[in-house]
Each structure stands twice: as structure tokens, then as C-alpha cells.
From TrEMBL:
<keyword id="KW-0276">Fatty acid metabolism</keyword>
<keyword id="KW-0012">Acyltransferase</keyword>
<dbReference type="Pfam" id="PF08545">
    <property type="entry name" value="ACP_syn_III"/>
</dbReference>
<dbReference type="InterPro" id="IPR004655">
    <property type="entry name" value="FabH"/>
</dbReference>
<keyword id="KW-0963">Cytoplasm</keyword>
<keyword id="KW-0444">Lipid biosynthesis</keyword>
<keyword id="KW-0511">Multifunctional enzyme</keyword>
<dbReference type="Pfam" id="PF08541">
    <property type="entry name" value="ACP_syn_III_C"/>
</dbReference>
<dbReference type="GO" id="GO:0033818">
    <property type="term" value="F:beta-ketoacyl-acyl-carrier-protein synthase III activity"/>
</dbReference>
<feature type="active site">
    <location>
        <position position="254"/>
    </location>
</feature>
<dbReference type="GO" id="GO:0004315">
    <property type="term" value="F:3-oxoacyl-[acyl-carrier-protein] synthase activity"/>
</dbReference>
<feature type="active site">
    <location>
        <position position="284"/>
    </location>
</feature>
<dbReference type="GO" id="GO:0044550">
    <property type="term" value="P:secondary metabolite biosynthetic process"/>
</dbReference>
<feature type="region of interest" description="ACP-binding">
    <location>
        <begin position="255"/>
        <end position="259"/>
    </location>
</feature>
<keyword id="KW-0443">Lipid metabolism</keyword>
<dbReference type="GO" id="GO:0005737">
    <property type="term" value="C:cytoplasm"/>
</dbReference>
<dbReference type="InterPro" id="IPR013747">
    <property type="entry name" value="ACP_syn_III_C"/>
</dbReference>
Amino acid sequence: MTKAAVISGIGSSVPASVVTNDMLAERLDTTDDWIRRLTGIQTRHWIEPGQATSDLAVEAGSRAIESAGGEPPQAVVLATITPDRPCPATAPEVASRLGLEGVAAFDVAAVCSGFVYGLATGTGLIAAGIAERVLVIGADTISTILDPTDRSTGVIFGDGAGAVMLRAGEADEPGALQALDLGSDGTGTDLITVPAGGSRQRSTKSVPPTTDTYLKMAGREVFRESVRRMVESCEAVLERTGWDAADVDRLVPHQANLRIMNSVADRLGMPRDRAVVDLDRVGNTSAASIPLALARAAAEGTVESGHRLLLTAFGGGLTWGSATLTWPDIKPV
């Protein structure tokens, strides 16, 4: 019988360094009030020189394993677009530093949708009988690819990592992922992109302008696409689960900005206060945003055992995805 993937533990990590809106306003010709009104963000965390994505992933992963009772996973799936280096993948190093000898470990690159893609991947590993337990981590250090002069991206992103442990279980138990929906549209590749550094640019042997090594985002188009795609994905996964929007206790969206999150809730016909909000303190943390939001909400009691959750994300690629589950009786460490 095919086993379900059940969330059994959760952990998170953010860098110690806090970056306030006022700190950014000094060099980006903006104000705390403008940033709050545009994004809903008050602070974010950025890594210090010498730190890397793996450092945050290891800490979040270790906490998720401890939260799940300490049993080690047989696979590690790391969702990130800011690996420690272009080659090799960062997940094997994370697994090694966690003391997981010989386990399957690999990266998933789906930008801000990465964690949902990681959940789907972990579900597949369990369903195929490859692993009984899978550690799924979303970790990004977007501060390392930000243009220090670009106000449109410089105020939005933060660094962080969140992780969950999946174990094989039954479909009707709390924590079991009920349904998943994934999608992509490669015609929107240039809407969220780092133009330089890949094979297309490198094959020309040209030296790219410095600005092409940083993240670029077409804000208005991304806003429009993200709301549409997340709403459509949510509707698809709710139908597969057999839920109506009114059945959902908490919407846990990718923490892009508050206006996008509110628009998704409005389009789904949900009260805005059902959406879990974490970006006010950590900003948009890309693949880490959903597990970070879950960890904070579980710690503070905003998400409780028995709550029916709808997770949804949108990212570069373009990619999107959603998932449903009933929250189990677990707490972050």
C-alpha cells in the first residue's frame, strides 16, 4: 500500500544580523513608511560575510530532526537558488554536516516555489519506498544576489531557512499531505532572473555587466502573475482535497509581500486574517518563507493541531505550487 508523507517535525533558522527599514533607507533613497506601505516588511535578516546558505540549512534541518524525535532521515531535499557554489549541489554537504552518512541528498531549484516542490519530491520518495523519512529544507540567502543600488529588490528580501521532517504514514492521520499541485510557465523566465553566470552567458565568453550578476524582477508583471497562479493552484488543490475555501483554517502563502498575500486571500474568498504573516519580521525569504512562517505560527499558537492548512507559493521560472494538510501536534525546537 502506498504510504502518505506526514510532517513529523519542523525547524527554522535566521541569521543574527537584523536589517531595519531605516538602515536601508539611508542608501536606497526611501523611507520606513514607504517600505511598510509597499511590502508590509519592517525588518529582515541578512547573513554576515563568510556565512552561507548551508549554515542556515544545517541549523534548520537539525532542529526539524530534533522536533521529530531525533530519528535520522534517509534523504535530504534542499530547495534553494543560492547554493554555496554552482557545483556541486549544497544538499550533500548539509547532510554530511548533519551526520547523515550515505543518504540521498540533492538540491531543488524552483525559486520561491522551491519548498512546495520539495514537499512533492519528498512525498514521491516516500511513496516509491526509497525512504521512510525525508528532510525537506527551504533555504536561501538572497542578500548575496541583491543589487545594492536597486530599491525595488533591496528592501524586499531576507535570508533564512526552514525545514520539515516527512515520515511514511497513513493518509488520514494529522500531518499527512492530502494533495499537491505544481505548475510552471517558462515563457516568463525573464520576470524573475539573474541573467549572468549560467551556460548561456558563459558560452559567449563575454564579461557581463555587474548588474547582470544580481537578481532582477519585473514587479508589476510578477504581482499580476503571482496572484493569478497561486489562486488557480489553490483552487485546484482544494478541489482534489475535497475542501472549500471556507474549510481552510489557515492560509500559509509564500511571503512575497503583504499586498500579494491579501489579494490571494481576497480572490479565494477568505478573510485576510486567516493568512499566516511572517514577512513583517523576516521579509521575503524565497524558498524558506513557507516553513519559516509555519515554524513561527506553530511556536506562537497561530497554527494549532487540527487546523486545516492551505500552503501556496509562486516563484521564478515561472513556477507555482500548493498543498493541503491538517496540522499535527508538533512544535518547533
